[in-house]
Design goal:
The complex is a heterodimer of chains A (about 475) and B (about 90).
Chain A lengths: L7 H10 L4 H19 L2 E4 L1 H17 L9 E5 L26 H8 L3 E6 L33 H8 L5 E6 L5 H7 L2 E4 L19 E6 L2 H11 L29 E5 L9 H16 L3 E5 L7 H16 L18 H12 L2 H14 L5 H24 L2 E5 L15 H6 L5 H6 L3 E8 L5 E7 L5 H15 L10
Parallel strand pairs in A: 2-3, 2-4, 7-8, 7-9
Antiparallel strand pairs in A: 1-3, 4-6, 5-6, 5-10, 9-11, 10-11
Helix pairs in contact in A: 2-3, 5-6, 7-15, 8-15, 9-11, 9-12
Chain B lengths: L4 H10 L6 H18 L34 H5 L17
The chains are: A alpha/beta (about 475), B mainly alpha (about 90).
């Protein structure tokens, strides 16, 4: 087994025993990137020198003792988390040359714990998209089948983990952007409860929905990364002050006493039969592990996409107003007047999907339309939250598909924005409700494309998701397959 | 029609964007499709429902009024597309 094939937990053991150094592990990942990234196209920036420097520092930290689980572990970072001194492009021409003067809080935490940052990975521009095809620079491909999407918007994160270029990644999830690519690439991805992980230094898309979370090869690694990034932060006023549990403790076998809800609206028409059968198999194995299965209803599911694409675009139109060409980012230097500078800068700097969403959001917030669109959507959001409250009165965790279909061909859905928006139907309600959600690998389609299973829980019950996810992983016992990247 | 080209032009102006004639035509069509779709929210009676702006509401995040380190002037200016070492430079406005 090559070092780059190790999970974080396995690498931790080898690093601790001295069988492997962080430099060797980091070099192994860098070589893997060199070998396969020309095809996978996950990395926008590879920070070879810094990574090796961090690896050496981690090896020194280790000899001093008292180290954290991520010490010396090489990771990739979605290119919308600010990394001091390293370009943070957000997949956009607008920020192509932006070098943040500070680290995001999650990056600060990873560095303090001795993690190694291999580089920054591709994503949909400003995290707007479900396939990473809106990236202004390159489109990452699915390691399981080149030419197919890796999902989005954290497509580079998912592709880099699935292609064994790094041991884990940080992404962000506004409407499914961690869980959906994790599902399409056959890895684990978690969107934490809103407020559990600091958003300071995350380039904002829709501030009431955005959350940072990990993408990893298995559930154990997910728990390790969650432990490393969770916690209150003074710099994020929406971060929540509460005790952060050690999620490792939830990784135990047996689900006796656990009630798992099956939301019937998530299994409607349009669900691919292979996806349905993978999820049904997941339900069966959980039953076998001792869980009680209950059918529940989330009656407003059908309205989620409409609510989401009004609230997310409204917040985006406001957040992205900051890109005016004045203090950072791209500017049209030819413009003669200030107004012309704003409009030229924004028109040249943003891609079509970003413009589309800014326009929808601006319209939904404009005088005369605010009540009909933004306020209405915010009211229906309350009904969606109430649905979850009722469901979690009956069960501890919800199980469902993540995406209605396996990955599709690059280019297949680019001309029809609404059909792509509708593919988010199963993930966006967790963001609207602020609850945690997780994607766990469930199986493969006949074409060899991965299919994930989604778990959702009440606010701050990541521990329940970990427990169910761990049992699901154990019971399904999928043979350790590796994508053949060719 | 939920939205006309003229309205899209007005919204683009509010959003500080220019749209070419072709972009305007494509965007109008796409925005019309999307706005027609979201109109399904009208099926629901929400007269008595309070709006949610944050899923997990917190009340007043205060902190002590302490001076902490911030970026130096040079760091703050470093990403500026045009600056004179003291301030960002923009086209003349007066």
């Amino acid at each position: 087994m090559k070092p780059y094939e190790l999970t974080i937990a396995q690498a931790m053991e080898q690093l601790a025993s001295g069988a492997l150094s962080s430099r060797e592990l980091t070099q192994s990942c860098l070589e893997r990137i060199k070998a396969v990234d020309g095809k996978v196209k996950a990395f926008l920036t590879v920070t070879t020198e810094q990574a090796l420097g961090q690896a050496d520092e981690a090896d020194r930290m280790r000899t001093r003792g008292g180290i954290s689980p991520l010490c010396g572990v090489p990771l990739s970072i979605k290119d919308l988390l600010c990394t001091k001194g390293i370009v943070t492009s957000c997949g956009s021409r607008m920020l192509e040359a932006y070098v943040p003067p500070y680290d995001a809080t999650v990056i600060e935490k990873l560095k303090e714990q001795g993690a190694v940052i291999l580089g920054k990975v591709a994503m949909d521009e400003f995290a707007m998209g479900s396939s990473s095809e809106n990236c202004a620079f390159q489109v990452p491909e699915n390691p399981w089948k080149l030419g197919f999407v890796s999902g989005g918007s954290s497509g580079g994160s998912a592709a880099s983990v699935a292609a064994l270029e790094c041991l884990g990644s940080l992404g962000s999830d506004t409407g499914g952007s961690i869980r959906q690519p994790a599902s399409l690439c056959g890895i684990v991805g978690m969107k934490p409860t809103y407020g559990l992980v600091s958003r300071y230094g995350l380039v904002a898309f829709a501030s009431s929905l955005d959350q940072i979370g990990p993408l990893t090869r298995d559930v154990t690694d997910c728990a390790l990364m969650m432990n490393a990034i969770s916690g209150y932060d003074l710099k994020d006023s929406t971060s929540v002050q509460r005790q952060v549990p050690d999620l490792n403790e939830s990784l135990t076998e047996g689900l006796q006493g656990m009630r798992i809800g099956v939301p019937r609206e998530y299994f409607g028409a349009g669900l691919d039969p292979e996806v349905r059968s993978v999820v049904n198999q997941g339900i069966e194995v959980l039953k076998g592990a001792g869980a009680k299965i209950i059918e529940v209803s989330l009656p407003h599911t059908d309205y989620c996409v409409a609510v989401y694409y009004l609230i997310a675009t409204a917040e985006a139109s406001s957040n992205l107003a900051r890109y005016d060409g004045v203090s950072y980012g791209f500017r049209d230097l030819e413009a003669k007047s200030l107004m012309d500078m704003y409009r030229e800068t924004r028109s040249q700097g943003f891609g079509p999907e970003v413009k589309r969403r800014i326009l929808i959001g601006t319209y939904a917030l404009s005088a005369g339309y605010y009540d009909a669109y933004y306020k209405k959507a915010s009211q229906v959001r309350t009904l969606i939250l109430d649905d979850f409250d009722r469901a979690f009165g009956q069960c501890d965790v919800l199980i469902s598909p993540v995406v209605p279909t396996p990955a599709w061909k690059i280019g297949e859905k680019v001309d029809d924005p609404l059909s792509l928006y509708l593919s988010d139907i199963l993930t966006i309600s967790a963001n609207l409700a602020g609850i945690p959600g997780m994607s766990v690998p469930g199986g493969f389609s006949h074409q060899g494309l991965p299919i994930g299973i989604q778990l959702q829980g009440p606010h701050f019950r990541e521990d329940s998701l970990m427990k169910v996810g761990y049992n699901l992983e154990r019971a399904l016992n999928l043979p350790p397959q590796r994508p053949k990247i060719s | 029609m939920k939205i006309t080209q003229k309205e899209v032009e007005r919204v683009a102006q509010l959003a500080r964007l220019y749209l070419s004639q072709q972009e305007l035509e494509t965007m109008t069509g796409q925005l019309d499709t999307i706005l027609s779709y979201v109109a399904k929210l009208d099926e629901l009676d929400t007269q008595e429902v309070r709006p949610t702006t944050h899923a997990f509401s917190l009340c007043n995040a205060f902190r002590e009024d302490e001076v902490i380190c911030s970026l130096s002037q040079a760091e703050a200016l470093a990403n500026g597309p045009r600056h004179n070492g003291e301030a960002f430079m923009v086209p003349r406005i007066l």
